[in-house]
Amino acid sequence: MPDKILKELTLKIWRQKNAKAKGGFETYKIRDISGGTSFLEMLDILNEQLVSENKEPVAFDHDCREGICGMCSLFINGRAHGPDDEVTTCQLHLRRFKDGETITIEPRSSGAFPVIKDLIVDRKAFEKIQQAGGYVSVTTGGVPDGNAIPVPSEKAEEAMDAAACIGCGACVATCKNSSAMLFVAAKVSQLALLPQGKIEAARRARAMVAKMDELGFGNCTNTGACESECPKKISIEHIARLNREYLKAKLQE
Amino acid sequence: MNKLDAKIPEGALAEKWANHKAHIGVVSPANKRKLDIIVVGTGLAGGSAAASLAELGYNVLSFCYQDSPRRAHSIAAQGGINAAKNYQNDNDSIYRLFYETIKGGDYRAREANVYRLAEVSGAIIDQCVAQGVPFARDYGGLLDNRSFGGALVSRTFYARGQTGQQLLLGCYGALNRQVKNGNVKVYSRHEVLDVVVIDGKARGVIARDLVTGKIERFGAHAVVLATGGYGNVFFLSTNAMGCNVSAAWQAYKRGAFFGNPCFVQIHPTCIPVHGDQQSKLTLMSESLRNDGRVWVPKKKEDAEKLQAGTISTNDIPDEDRDFYLERRYPAFGNLVPRDVASRAAKERCDAGFGVNNTGKAVFLDFKYAIQRLGEETIRKRYGNLFQMYEKITDVNPYREPMMIYPAIHYSMGGLWVDYNLMTTIPGLYAIGECNFSDHGANRLGASALMQGLADGYFILPYTIGDYLAKEIQTPKINTASPEFNEAEQRVNDRLRALGEIKGTKSPDHFHKLLGRVMWDHVGMARDAKGLEQASRMIQELKQEFYRDLRVTGDLSAMNNELEKAARVADFFELAELMTRDAIERAESCGGHFRLESVTGEGEAKRDDDRYRHVSAWEYKGDDNAPELHQEPLVYENIQIAQRSYK
Q: Which of A54, A60, A78, B21 sits a CA distance of 20 to 30 A from B91?
């Protein structure tokens, strides 16, 4: 069945030339667009329009457009990844909007995620947290057979729930404290649940939390906002597991 | 003299790799510290190679255009990874995986490479498990398997519908560990735009910092390209938006031969195109064909009514449904290889039996599996894929069948490499999808992840040592040399030229037009006339591009339009080579289907007498035709036959 056509949408988009420049909102119109168009395809169409007017297009991060790379990162009408649940910005479609609606599009910036240009932010802080300990310390080769250590399927499933994190940063952007606890917890919890990662679980928790604090992310005050805005529905139960591992690490000190 | 030496080791097939490893050079730990290696790309091949080389003690410089190595497009692979573990006791073996891969590739891949791939496949699973990859497990806690197209056994390991993501995050962890240890420096948001060759050897790259717009030089004792495939030459594909051929293409222009450029894979199960303003196609995992049945209406009038929207799918009784894959290929049914399934879908749609308002779609129906297994089992197997489908199409696949259509997905062609994965430029390696080596004319499902990780974890770290053992006396590469000056100048000139056209049309405008020409004439079905026509159209479009391109914004700052323009410029040249290669190969094989070469039953017909070889193209300058070299394919261990899945 063909999708409905939206006659007009008004877009208020954050424009900022570079990290140092002062930014502000610009208003654009999009006309006669199909509800089956994805949100980012709408931005592609807007950008074509801007180029035809010899204006600079809107810079935004995106890549896989299948909801898995975690590159897309917009705040749409005040919500990370927009009004739909369990989708990333790239999977959001215009049929979720009303004809004539005004849509506000902002970068997901925070102290730890500064704006690079327009809607693009710098998420290198996430890299540094992962580098601090988000792995199992094995080198290539010399590992046992894949079936040498059975893993209860419910543990593997729970680890997979946590491992589904795409590192988009919606949790940080949504948290009133700009905490990265859900992001850190997803990795700590995934690896703590599996026998392969359990050995280093406490040390990993300590290292990743220390790095998160050092980088200026805020504290977790258990509001649960991160979980509700997470496109992959990572549960805050993983934060509880992180806290347990962290406590163990502290007791070992 | 033939310039192609594949360097395939002597000896029996099963002993080649072991013998080769035993006799190649090894660099001592003290010397590894003095050697720099550039790895371009951070997907499964590049990420695993960068991590493994750093673990060995080399200094690794790792590049990606995304903001993090974790976002490389391997992340989007859904269904699984093959390995000849025989955990299911279903008579799998290294030989069987080897054989099915060669056959699946329609006898256009190199025996020794494919055997080695099958040989190391088991170790990949062990490695990933040790890294904490949460593979699916059965109730006893052991690893679970599923079936994939083109295979008679269950050897595919998976992590829900996110296998690529989980494998990539495993290798991202290994990479991060090496960053922490100081052995890897990651250059994210950097695009490699040229390869620097000094005295015939690869010695570095020129890259653009995508944030600052600055052109930078990087030297190294060896360069590894792991830049993925070139499916985006078609504009609409399942590749990520940023996937491009630029680094590989510039390597070709510096002297690396390009192997089998016309071999691209068209994946049968993608969400159909919905309109003319679409930017991207979404894949639905092949694993869905395990439980979904593919069909179109038997009666043309039913198809027409469905297209017009006057009846609904559930109005068509089972006896009026044509399960055409089961009908045509009773042995493999819905699990025939991708090229076969894609062509069969096109055949039905071209004959007027397609569905959707466009007539360009077929059904993938889970009704029967839900009846057999229950909705909960289906949800457990494919829940996230069903959710994704519903979000994109607004149709609930638990209630109504999915609609799918083939789309460009993977490139089997790529830079020509020898057994050591080295290109024809000494010191320049190509791994993963970027090379041409293991999949012949058609890749089997769940084999891309296997190849990427095999190359990066277990093959390149050995073979590169053989080259670098002779480089231990070479000091740090001086990036102030004339060759680096010249390469940087070339990149600057190229980008400035694009900026100075100051025409009226965006890079995307030209990219879409190019993609249309490629899809129509160099896509699922090709013939000499269409290809010749494509060749002319590409020329005209390319001239138009250089006359009327508009690149807005500042060239020496972050500029997405400039990035796109540079990629499209390279896609134009690649498109010419793909078309030339497709014209030259006047046989059908795998994904390359020439209408002039079919069997009486409409299946692809190879011409082994004339085309049992790899076509490797050598660049001869912008104004000259490239030169074709042929690497004959020798089959000593399997009987080659006309491929049949009936």
A: B21
Do B630 and B618 touch, CB atoms closer than 8 A? Answer: no
The span from the CA of B95 to the CA of B645, in Å, is 19
pLDDT value of position B286:
85
Nearest by CB to B132, from A52, A95, A191: name it: A191
Chain A CB contacts of B188 under 8 Å are 124, 127
Query: Would you say residue B567 lies in a domain?
Result: yes
Question: Do A206 and A237 belong to one domain?
Answer: yes
A115 CA to chain B: closest CA distance, Å? 11
Q: Which of B96, B338, B594, B643 is catalytic?
A: B338
What's the Cα-to-Cα distance from B435 to each of A46, B381, B422, B523, B631, rounded to whole Å?
A: 36, 32, 9, 20, 15
AA letter at A62 = H
**Domain range enclosing A137:** 124-142+150-252
Instruction: Say if B225 falls within a structural domain.
Output: no
Is B338 one of the annotated active-site residues of the chain? Answer: yes
Task: Give percent above pLDDT 70 in chain B.
Answer: 100
- Asked if pLDDT for residue B608 goes beyond 70, the answer is yes
C-alpha span between B228 and B244 (Å, rounded): 8
> Distance (Å, rounded) from C-alpha B435 to C-alpha B334?
29
Nearest beta carbon to residue B129 from set A2, A51, A196 = A196
Distance of CA B447 to the CA centre of its chain: 10
Specify the CATH number for the domain of residue B625.
1.20.58.100
Q: Is the residue at B593 inside a domain?
A: yes
Residues of B within 8 A of A1 (CB-CB) are: 309, 357
Of A134, A160, A191, the CB nearest to B176: A134
Residue contacts between A and B (CB atoms, under 8 Å)? 232
The verdict on ipTM greater than 0.90 is yes
Residue pair B243/B254 in contact by the 8 Å Cβ criterion: no
| Residues B246/B193, Cβ–Cβ less than 8 Å | yes
For residue B560, give the nearest of A45, A54, A59 by CB distance. A59
Are B404 and B491 in the same domain? no
Give B212-245 pLDDT, tens digit per residue.
999 999 999 999 999 999 999 999 999 999 999 9
Q: Which residue of A has its CA nearest to B160?
A: A160
Q: Mind telling me how many Å the CA of B141 is from chain A's nearest CA? A: 4
CB contact under 8 A, B173 and A140: no
Mean per-residue pLDDT for A100-117? Answer: 94
Enumerate residues 91 to 110 of chain A having a beta carbon within 8 A of any beta carbon in chain B. 91, 93, 95
A229 and A129 in one domain? yes
Range of the domain at B361: 271-408
CB proximity under 8 Å: A 167-226 to B: 167, 190-191, 194, 196-197
pLDDT reading at B319 higher than 70:
yes
Q: How many domains does chain A have?
A: 2
Q: Mutating which of B277, B388, B512, B556 best tests the A interface, going by the most A Cβ atoms within 10 A?
A: B277
C-beta neighbour count of B489 within 10 angstroms: 12
Q: pLDDT tens digits for B262-298?
A: 999 999 999 998 878 889 999 998 889 999 999 999 9
Are residues B287 and B391 both part of a single domain? yes
Going from the C-alpha of B552 to that of each of A18, A105, B507, B564, the distances in angstroms are 16, 22, 10, 11
- Asked if residue B1 has pLDDT above 50, the reply is no
pLDDT band at residue A1 under the 50/70/90 scheme: low
Q: Is residue A246 located within the same domain as residue A130?
A: yes
- What are the residues facing B266 on neighbouring strands? B408
For residues B212 and B128, give the distance between their C-alpha atoms in angstroms, rounded to a whole number: 36
Pairwise CB contact (< 8 Å): B275 & A122: no
Do A92 and A40 lie in one domain? The reply is yes
Domain identity same for B499 and B622: yes
Decide if B277 and A54 are in contact by the 8 Å CB cutoff: no
In a domain, B6, yes or no: no
